[in-house]
Amino acid sequence: MAGLLNGKRGLVMGVANERSIAWGIARSLAGEGASLAFSYQGEAFGRRVAPLAEEVGSDILFDLDVTDGASMEAGFSTLANRWGSLDFVVHAIAFADKAELAADFRFRDTTRENFSQSMLISCYSFIDVARRAAEMMPDGGTLLTLTFEGSQRVMPCYNVMGVAKAGLETAVRYLASDLGPEGIRVNAISPGPMKTLAGSAIGAARRTYKHAEANAPLQANATLEAIGGTAVYLASDHGANTTGQIIMVDGGFHVMGMPRVEHL
After folding, report:
1. Chain centroid to CA 175: how far?
2. Which is the most buried residue in 42, 91, 140, 259, by most CB within 10 A?
3. What are 69-76's contacts with CB under 8 Å, separation 24+?
């Protein structure tokens, strides 16, 4: 099935390092023939992403801050000048204050500032990206984002990120309805607990990871390869009739759910 994405071009946002879910997706997309561009935020992440972009033959790499309208405008202008059009975007961007994801932090104490920033970066940024990307998809395309089961269940220490992901999932459905007439599909992939840089910021990450692996029907957590394969399907013509969906790739973690928090 090699070459499912031959001739397609897409932007991958949010690669942090070689263990990032976004990188697993990018590697799979490139393996099926897609041409990729990468955005990052800040010089430190730029240094990490540069060799990975080179590994998949990409020479389009730019700094982009989703909280800054001017930065967003500049980033998408860069893409428009290089390519003119887009076929897909992978949005793997989320943020919450690490202190409010700690094991001893209570959700009721979420600060106004952290709530606003978490929603802006983790939810609204996808809406903003969708609007800009849609202008570069005259023949239709695919928009993908990442979510987590913490939007539907209480997960230890996930706190405000669960609320932000719930908003993101609702945004996926509204965007799918809004952009469907233009041939643009909008979906989210929901992996189970994974050992990533972002995941390590959550206080109970190790316990949640071990619980999922031991109790999910497949007795395994998601792999980068499995998530990447799902993204290939959604971005390819095989996903032509799939939109507005939250696709679970988690070993059946969502089937089992989580016990009461104190039992972990």
Report:
1. 15
2. 91
3. 72/128, 72/129, 72/132, 75/39, 76/132, 76/133, 76/135, 76/136
Query: Per residue in 161-202, pLDDT tens?
Result: 999 999 999 999 999 999 999 999 999 999 876 655 555 555
Whether the per-residue pLDDT at 220 is higher than 70: the answer is no
Please give the positions annotated as active site.
Answer: 158, 165
Least confident of 67-81, 85-99, 150-164: 150-164
pTM for the model stands at: 0.89
CA atoms lying within 13 Å on the CB side of residue 40: 21
Residue identified by tokens 């590697």 is 27
Dihedral sign from CA coordinates of 251, 257, 259, 264: positive
* Token code pair at residue 250: 């988690």
pLDDT tens by residue, 19-33: 899 999 999 999 999
For 95, other C-beta atoms within 10 Å of its C-beta total 20
Question: How far apart are alpha carbons 254 and 152 in whole angstroms?
Answer: 9
Q: Report the C-alpha gap between 230 and 236 in whole angstroms.
A: 10
Exposure letters 123-146 (e unless 16+ CB within 10 A, then b): bbbbbbbbebbbebbeeebbbbbb
CB atoms within 10 A of CB 46: 16
Give the Cα separation of 187 and 245 in Å (integer): 5
